[in-house]
Amino acid sequence: MTDALSVRIFKGYPAPMYGFRTLSDDDPILDSSPVQRILTFLKDQFDQNPKGIPLTKSGAFRRVMVAEAITAINFPDWTAQEIYHGFGKIRIADEHHFEPLWRMHQLLRDMRLARTYLGHLRMTKAGKELFSGRFRAFDAVTQAVLFEAHEFRSERQYHRLMGGWDIWLNVIDIEAQGGITGRALTEAFYGPVDPTLLYDPKVGGLYSGVLKPLVWTGLLREDMPDGRKIGDRIYTVTPLWKRYLELDQKPPRLRVVK
């Protein structure tokens, strides 16, 4: 985080902080998280396959399971309609066609919650302990997605994204209560964006390093009323955001009545 960014956004206020609240395993709000729906699907697959989930020779999930996952998980922007008839236009999906699933497959390996053995993906002892509680699994994997997942962390490094999660979360908590475009949110952090550019690296960096993992974990909702252009997408905090995140109390905004 840069001091200049912190001072510019929170001038006159204490340094922003964040934390995470505990939810109960049977709280239905967990199902609003796309990541949690992947975890639930994989947990069911492990339960159905005591010897491990069968893999292809290349170590990927088999096509039959991928097809089932696409339908069951209903991941935003990665639904069956979009994968088979939208941007993908494919007849049969392999694991790499369903990016969130193969990213989560890799993350579980990186976290040493699962490993390959004799052509199957098996839970490790740590994985079995973690998946014994629904919220424990959600909490650990969500924080890994936000802070540790290579894809998102490398995007933040590549774009040299100024700031840190304390700044990003607390500013989004203010700006995205009623919905805000990716372009406007980028300007809240980093100043004016050139509207003539087809792709602004500041908008792309904030999306790929911060907004995308928040959408995947279910903390932000992403809407595309004006097409798929990143700057025009609208982001809104979700009920899960308000229940799970513990952020700074914000001063009330003044309402001017004419």
The stretches of 5 or more residues where confidence is low (pLDDT under 50) are 254-258
Approximate shape: globular
Radius of gyration: 20 Å
Distance between the termini: 40 Å
Mean pLDDT: 89
Question: What kind of assembly state do the chains in view correspond to?
Answer: single chain
Number of helices: 12
Please state the structural category.
Answer: mainly alpha
Within the largest sheet, what's the order of strands? 2-4-3
Task: Name the helix and strand elements from N-terminus to C-terminus, one letter apiece.
Answer: HEHEHHHEEHHHHEHHEEHE
Into which percentage range does the β-strand content fall?
A: 5-15%
Total number of strands? 8
Helicity level, as a percent range?
Answer: 40-55%
Give a quick account of the main beta sheet: strands, pairing sense, barrel closure.
Answer: 3 strands, antiparallel
List the helices and strands and how they pair.
Layout: H1 3-9, E1 18-20, H2 34-48, E2 53-54, H3 63-73, H4 80-85, H5 99-110, E3 114-117, E4 120-123, H6 125-130, H7 134-147, H8 150-158, H9 165-175, E5 180-181, H10 182-190, H11 201-216, E6 220-223, E7 234-237, H12 239-244, E8 245-247
Antiparallel strand pairs: 1-8, 2-4, 3-4, 5-7, 6-7
Helix pairs in contact: 2-7, 8-11, 10-11
Characterize the structure shown.
- A hairpin with a 2-residue loop joins strand 3 and strand 4 (120-123).
- The N and C termini lie far apart (40 Å).
- With 258 residues, the chain is mainly alpha-helical.
- The protein is built from twelve helices and eight strands.
- The strands form three sheets. A three-stranded antiparallel beta sheet has the order 2-4-3. Strands 5-7-6 form a three-stranded antiparallel beta sheet. It has a two-stranded antiparallel ribbon with strand order 1-8.
